[in-house]
Amino acid sequence: AQSVTQLGSHVSVSEGALVLLRCNYSSSVPPYLFWYVQYPNQGLQLLLKYTSAATLVKGINGFEAEFKKSETSFHLTKPSAHMSDAAEYFCAVSDDSGGSNYKLTFGKGTLLTVNP
Amino acid sequence: AAGVIQSPRHLIKEKRETATLKCYPIPRHDTVYWYQQGPGQDPQFLISFYEKMQSDKGSIPDRFSAQQFSDYHSELNMSSLELGDSALYFCASSPPGLARRDTQYFGPGTRLTVL
What we know:
- The complex is a heterodimer.
- Helix content of chain A is 0%, strand content 53%.
- Chain A has no helices and eleven strands.
- In chain A, a hairpin with a 5-residue loop joins strand 6 and strand 7.
- Chain A starts with a strand and ends with a strand.
- The model of chain A has no long low-confidence stretch (mean pLDDT 91).
- The mean pLDDT of chain B is 93.
- Chain B is 0% helix and 50% strand.
- Chain B has strands at 5-7, 10-13, 19-24, 31-37, 44-50, 53-57, 64-68, 74-78, 87-94, 105-106, 110-114.
- In chain B, a hairpin with a 6-residue loop joins strand 4 and strand 5 (44-50).
- Chain B is mainly β.
- Chain B is globular.
- In chain B, the strands form two sheets. In chain B, strands 2, 4, 5, 6, 9, 10 and 11 form a seven-stranded mixed beta sheet that branches. Chain B has a four-stranded antiparallel beta sheet with strand order 1-3-8-7, with no helix packed on it.
- Classes of the chains: A mainly beta, B mainly beta.
- Chain A binds chain B through residues 32, 36, 41-46, 49, 51, 90, 94-95, 99-109, and chain B through 31, 33, 35, 41-45, 48, 50-51, 55-56, 58, 90, 92, 94, 100-109, 111.
């Protein structure tokens, strides 16, 4: 079964600093990987996804992630943090059992705090 | 663009009561997923439907049931509610075809509070 592990339940950065949120995956086949963002009391918004095409994926709001098979990682980065980036970030992997079952398995989430 | 609609957005129930959550997928989407997110937790998959048939089942209690109707909307029925059922319930939908695997659009969620 696929799974993802997010290292660090809470990351705090200063405004303008680099954002790095870590995600490692476990999958027996090439995975489909996702990063979602959740603002307080809101739903899940897709930031970006990896679907076995380019290993460097660019998403919305200046975020990007790089798929590294050798490290089984899919870390999320942003060069310069903005106050509006403060939120919970979830890494997720799509079920690869085929058919119509593509449920997502989420990591435990990383709360990003941006300090002025 | 149309998004996934969930109703109600907030629901307060007493223990042992029943609740029905509704999900209206994006038009022409044929797959619906339900997820439960407890306080401070990650979303957990409950159940999914593809073309009105149950396609997968996760950690859904026997007290819960769900179905997808002919117009593709879905309802999650919850009976004998417990305090631990208090959570945010998300519905997500996917389009038909190859995009099904890599595209799930989430609704805003229904916040259920059990007192």
